[in-house]
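Aim 2 progress update. The chain analyzed this quarter is reproduced below.
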Amino acid sequence: MEKLLDVIKERRSIRDFKDEDLSKEQVTTLLEAARWAPSGSNIQAWRIYVVKGSKLESIKKFSPGLLSDPPVIFVICLDTVEAENKGGQLSKEVLSKMDIAIAAQNVCLQASYMGLGTCYIGSFNKIAIKEILDLPENHIPELILTIGKPDKIPTPPPKKELDELTEWVGWKDE
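Predicted structure tokens:
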């Protein structure tokens, strides 16, 4: 059985996908991973639009960060009404966006475990995406995740040493 840390270390941003469709069962498993993500006050103010086909092709025209041809994308939106009604302005402006990132990371890790690849896309036109998907006014696209079977798996980029990223506060030297 793989250890979670191994899956985390193996996950890559995949930009080249094989021309293979995903099954509804695979996609549902990824959505379950998102559903079980922690959320401030359990608000879960994200909405995931699972997109493929002609709508995906239309979205690509307004997403300069989406350079590949994935079979599926998740457009993850913030439900601003639910975020504000249940968590206030701070939830709407900050906390629910962090919750979206956590849900997306769950999807990416589950995808990696399943032999699939993902890539975060933040460069896109929100207004165009809303129009293409005919989103309700209160659903604001915050993130696109590409998903598919990797064609190429890049080597891992260099990572800083723990000493460069960590300060131990209140710990006695052991």
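The first helix runs from residue 4 to 10. Helices lie at 4-10, 24-35, 54-60, 80-113, 126-133, 162-165. These observations will guide the mutagenesis experiments scheduled for the next reporting period.
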